[in-house]
Design goal:
The complex is a heterodimer. By secondary structure, chain A is an alpha+beta fold. Helix content of chain A is about 50%, strand content about 15%. Chain B is built from 4 helices and 5 strands; from the N terminus they run E-E-H-H-E-E-E-H-H. Classes of the chains: A alpha+beta, B alpha+beta. Chain A: Keywords: Endoplasmic reticulum, ER-Golgi transport, Golgi apparatus, Transport.
């Protein structure tokens, strides 16, 4: 599938088949989740990242079903096709943003998503405690979502943020790496 | 013209202060308070809080105009919906520019408040907010 086709599908589904909610509601809800996690875990940001990733994972497991139902997409043609679908359709219909797919590795197994805008992080400034800037990945839930969603379609991936404008970096970049294609395995003892 | 601006929280605690001079008609943006008067500014400003609390119930607008006077100095006030008070000490009358200044600061304050890591009545240390206040001061006063 060509990339323009992806963009078109994303646009179409976004316009016709998606319920919209107020952006600030999303931003503030997500913000209070992160803030509460930071409080509950007493500023252990590594643990906060982990929890966010887990929450995202659980969202991803379900979201992929919704995604497939709304878009009527078939199989992807390789990992590059998957990447385009994620960026131009997935992010488009759920967050109305289109991150740029770039920085492909030579073996075509990992790529970067560069976010020009990030509705989760509007208004946010990280706490000025000298650690959050280096430890907290504020939008880490997105990594979990991708991991969960792709796992349901037989792709085990590893996703993490490489930079974030909230930390003072120039761009927000997420690195996604394909670990392996999960083969259909028969449950043990079930011939 | 010189100004002294302060944001006061709901428990009468200061959240943010900024002293500056006019940037209009060739001003360089530096406050020119007399040295012996400078330390008085905070007192004058905070003593006007009682007046603000009186006026805020008789006025429908958030902008309360000039609420208090002390010799040649005036204090203008602005109360946000959440009862955060903006106070500006100034030595010349300038109703409209001050209104515009307050409105812009209010906008910046709301943005700050939307940050999940900021809580009401917390001191405002955000650099972004500071820059926006400075820009508003340069633009209108």
């Amino acid at each position: 599938m060509s990339t323009t086709k992806h963009a078109r599908i994303g646009e179409e589904v976004w316009k016709s088949r998606v319920d919209k909610v107020n952006a600030e509601l999303v931003t503030l809800t997500y913000g209070s989740i992160v803030q509460q996690l930071c409080k509950d875990l007493e500023g252990d940001y590594t643990e906060v990242n982990k929890q966010l990733d887990k929450m995202g994972y659980n969202i991803g497991l379900r979201l992929i079903e919704d995604f497939l139902a709304k878009t009527n997409m078939g199989r992807c043609n390789g990992f590059r096709d998957t990447a385009e679908s994620i960026a131009k359709i997935g992010f488009k219909i759920f967050l109305n943003i289109t991150p740029t797919v770039t920085n492909w590795s030579a073996d075509n197994k990992s790529f970067s998503l560069v976010f020009e805008e990030n509705p989760l992080a509007d208004f946010v400034e990280l706490p000025d405690d000298g650690r959050a800037q280096n430890e907290l990945w504020y939008s880490n839930i997105l990594c979990g979502v991708l991991r969960g969603a792709l796992e349901m379609v037989q792709m085990q991936v590893e996703a993490h943020f490489a930079s974030d404008v909230l930390r003072g970096n120039d761009s927000t970049e997420m690195r996604v790496e394909l670990i392996r294609i999960i083969d259909d395995e028969l449950p043990p003892g079930d011939e | 013209m010189s100004f002294y601006f302060a944001i006061i929280g709901t428990r009468d605690n200061p959240l943010y202060t900024y002293e500056f001079g006019t940037s209009k008609s060739g001003g360089d943006g530096v406050a020119r308070f007399r040295e012996d008067q400078r330390s008085m500014n905070q007192f004058i400003l905070h003593s006007s809080l009682d007046m603000v609390e009186e006026v805020q119930w008789t006025n429908r607008d958030l902008y309360l105009k000039t609420v208090d006077r002390f010799n040649n100095l005036m204090v203008s006030g602005f109360v946000t919906g959440g009862n955060i008070k903006f106070l500006l000490l100034h030595d010349q009358k300038a109703e409209d520019p001050i209104r515009q200044f307050f409105t812009e600061v209010h906008e910046a304050y709301v943005k700050t408040l939307m940050n999940p890591f900021y809580e009401v009545d917390m001191r405002i240390v955000s650099v972004v907010f500071d820059q926006r206040v400075r820009a508003a001061a340069r633009k209108y006063l």
